[in-house]
Amino acid sequence: MNYRRMSGIVLTVSTIMTSTAYAAEPSTTNWPSFRGPSASGVADGYKLPVKWNVETGENIKWKTPIPGLAHSSPIVWGDRVFVTSAISEEANPYLRVGLYGESPDHPEQVVHDFRVYCLSAKSGDIIWERSAHKGIPKVKRHIKATHANCTPATDGKHVVAFFGSEGLYCYDMAGKLLWKKDLGVFDAGPPRAGDLQWGFSSSPIIHDGRVIVLCAARNESFLAAFDVETGSEIWRTPRVKYPGWGTPTVAVHRGASGAVIRSQVVTNGFKHIGGYDLETGKELWWMRGGGDIPVPTPIVSGNLIFITNAHGGQAPVYAIRSIAEGDITLSDGEKSSAYIAWSHMKIGNYMQTPLVYGDHLYCCRDSGIMACYDAVTGKKQYRKRLAGGVGFTASPVAGDGKIYFTSEEGDVFVIKTGSEYELLGKNTMGEITMASPAISQGTLFFRTQHHVVAVGGDR
Question: Is the pTM of this model over 0.90?
Answer without folding.
Answer: yes
